[in-house]
Design goal:
The radius of gyration is 20 Å and the shape is globular. α1 (17-35) crosses α10 (305-317), α1 runs parallel beside α12 (355-370) and α11 (322-337) crosses α12 (355-370). By secondary structure, it is of the alpha/beta class. The protein folds into 2 domains: 1-105 and 274-371, Isopropylmalate Dehydrogenase; 111-267, Isopropylmalate Dehydrogenase (3-Layer(aba) Sandwich). Helix content is 41%, strand content 20%. It has 12 helices and 14 strands. The longest helix has 19 residues, at 17-35. It has a 10-stranded mixed sheet with strand order 2-1-3-12-11-4-5-10-8-9, sandwiched between helices. The chain has helices at residues 17-35, 48-54, 60-68, 91-101, 125-128, 169-184, 200-216, 227-236, 248-261, 305-317, 322-337, 355-370, and strands at 6-13, 39-43, 71-76, 106-112, 132-138, 146-153, 159-164, 189-194, 221-226, 243-246, 271-273, 284-286, 340-341, 351-352. It binds 3-isopropylmalic acid and magnesium ion. The site of magnesium ion has 2 residues, from α9.
Length: 371
């Protein structure tokens, strides 16, 4: 393996994370053996498993590896046994620290409805057939990180919980810039979702996105939408959207809605990107949008496709291998078309397969497509 090999840090995490990540590493190996991808994989702990072993949801040593990696592949974190841990020890803090310390401010969450899955959506097939939208979620600011935050004892038997929604100009501009750039390569339409009717950050968000639009992207169509209306429109007529850019919290919620349009949370990948350095390379982490699903962990029921599609985003955005990304996407499409389904996307007539069988089916489809 040459010294130019990409450094990939694999963090399977908790719950179904390890199961789905096993399938991803098999697919990474396949690309190494068959397509010349040079990747050095390193594994480490994050989330509850890291807490159990080290007392922290992510160690400084692991963070150091993440900072030096070309890409981080992340599984999922969390589980009921960690619910009562102090805030700073919770598994989710490992994920949030990765996002924050790597400065991954742009979270790309595509919601693409595969033809074979239109029936799995809870919406009518005609509403979701051919759906292809991209949510660009701000990931390092807003109420997730704003200060002050905490729970205060008011002394009279009452407590006060505080979280702060805060955005600076540049935090808004840099994520909106990513959204406009991506829209140019798609259908050239950006919806900017905020609550400018009730929030100061919303008013400012709207002003800043328009300023940037006038200065740099007047050739892209920009539409404002209130975040609550956006949620409603996503389930009413999702195909009206192309790119949706929004803040951290609204992005969290809207991307779950968008995910369900595609038939299953188990289908939605994501990429979290930082600013490009002087060589044009961005720090990056790839993770499925689904969580750790502790209720089905270890049973071979999890759908590995969201994590596999997240690796496809790594091929596209970190390794500059668009063709290989297309190949993997097409292989997933073929597997779905063949009728194989994990439980979450199963229909009465489909062939139900386990996590491992789904991974094997994708590997088989990759072989068939390239032989
Ligand atoms: C997500 C998740 C996370 C979030 C949790 C696990 C902290 O829901 O990536 O959407 O709220 O951002
Ligand atoms: Mg979420």
């Amino acid at each position: 393996m040459s010294t130019n090999a990409y450094k990939v840090l694999v963090l399977p995490g908790d719950g179904i994370g390890p199961e789905v990540m096993t399938e991803v590493t098999r697919v990474i190996d396949w690309f190494g053996e068959n397509r010349g991808l040079e990747a050095n994989l390193d594994h480490d702990l994050v989330g509850g498993v890291a807490y159990d072993k080290t007392g922290q949801p992510i160690t400084d040593a692991c963070m150091e590896k993440a900072l030096n990696a070309d890409a981080v592949m992340f599984g999922a974190v969390g589980g009921p046994q960690y619910d009562n841990l102090p805030f700073e020890s919770k598994p989710e803090r490992g994920l949030l620290r990765l996002r924050k310390d790597l400065e991954l401010f742009a979270n790309l969450r595509p919601a693409l409805c595969f033809d074979a899955l239109t029936e799995a959506s809870s919406l009518k097939p005609e509403l979701v057939a051919g759906l292809d939208i991209l949510i660009v979620r701000e990931l390092t600011g807003g109420v997730y990180f704003g200060e002050p935050r905490g729970i205060e004892d008011l002394g009279n038997g009452q407590r006060r919980g505080v979280d702060t929604q805060v955005y600076d100009t540049e935090e808004i501009r840099r994520v909106c810039r990513v959204a406009f750039e991506l829209a140019k390569k798609r259908r050239n339409l950006v919806h900017s979702a905020e609550k400018s009717n009730v929030m100061h950050t919303g008013v400012m968000w709207r002003q800043e996105v328009h300023k940037l639009h006038e200065e740099e992207f007047s050739d892209v169509e920009l539409q404002d939408i209130l975040a609550d209306n956006c949620a409603m429109q996503l389930v009413r007529a999702p195909k009206q959207f192309d790119v949706i850019v929004t803040d951290n919290l609204f992005g969290d919620i809207l991307s779950d809605v968008a995910a369900m349009l595609t038939g299953s949370l188990g289908m939605l990948p994501s990429a979290s990107l930082g600013a490009p350095d002087s060589a044009g390379k961005s720090k990056a982490m790839y993770e499925p949008v689904h969580g750790s699903a502790p209720d089905i962990a270890g049973e071979g029921k999890a759908n590995p496709l969201a994590c596999l599609l997240s690796f496809s985003m790594a091929l596209r955005y970190s390794f500059d291998r668009g063709e290989d990304a297309d190949l993997l996407d097409a292989a997933v499409n073929d597997v779905l078309a063949s009728g194989k389904r994990t439980l979450d996307i199963a229909t009465p007539t489909s062939e139900k397969v386990s996590t491992t069988q789904m991974g094997e089916a994708v590997l088989h489809a990759l072989k068939t497509k390239t032989s």
